[in-house]
Amino acid sequence: MGGWGLYLAFMIPPLVIGLGVQAWLKRTFARYSQVEIGSGLTGAQVAREILNRNGLDEVPVEVSPGGALSDHYDPRKKALFLSESVYAPPSVAAAAVAAHETGHALQDAHGYGPLKIRSAMFPAVAFASTAWMWLLILGFLLQATGLIGIAVALYAVAVAFHLVTLPVEFNASKRAGVQLRELGLVGAGEAAGVQKVLNAAAMTYVAGALAALTQLVYFALLFFGNRD
To answer: What is the pLDDT of residue 222?
Structure first.
């Protein structure tokens, strides 16, 4: 199989899976954004309630400037950021996403190991994610296997970050489900919708990790194959 054929064989399946998962998430989020939560609480109020009930009154809940589905918890600022489509609506989808992000705040407060590892990796990953491609291109142009090897190693750091992210995200969703049920923030009929939103969101991270891992395998094969 030629170079382009090998590249397409490694890249197209994860790309198709990723696009499919993104479409699933958007469809699921849109569907349950139309289902009003019985408690009438907005996403921000759900997050606030969970935080307060867990002794995290000092963690602010703010509107994220990043647009749709830019919801996140920032462990450096100790703050929760929710997109407008999650912050204000009193919907099942908003409650699910807001609760998931508070799950990260709970992880931080309880010293959850994988989150600490991911946070520690972030500076190195920020550098590696930018530098590896330039080194790879330069290495191929100069036929410098050393530079290509460094590029692959740097990309491996980024892939490791994707893999560490998986337990962090799945654990946050698990915490979200527990909090919503135990605090009575969602009814029995709403729990299924919450779980569907959380499952769809979690699969985006699985798809991202799969794409990153297959690309790493491709570049590793290319690098080591060229050394023979």
So the answer is: 74
Q: What is the pLDDT of residues 71-107, one digit of tens each?
A: 999 999 999 999 999 999 999 999 999 999 999 999 9
Of 165, 197, 203, the residue nearest 180 (C-alpha): 197
Rounded to 5°, angle at Cα 91 from 88 and 93 = 105
pTM score, whole prediction: 0.88
Q: Is 101 a catalytic residue?
A: yes
Compute the radius of gyration of the chain from its Cα atoms: 20
Instruction: Locate 172 and state its tokens.
Output: 């946050």
CB of 90 within 8 A of CB of 41?
yes
CA dihedral sign of residues 130, 131, 134, 140: negative
Strand pairing of 79-82 and 61-63?
Answer: parallel
Amino acid at 150: I
Catalytic residue among 36, 58, 62, 101: 101
3-state SS assignment for residue 111:
coil
Q: What ranges do the domains of the chain cover?
A: 3-227
CA distance 167 to 149: 29
Q: How many residues in the chain?
A: 228
Residues 162, 143: Cα–Cα separation, whole Å = 29
Sign of CA dihedral 140, 145, 151, 156: positive
Checking if the pLDDT of 228 tops 60, the result is: no
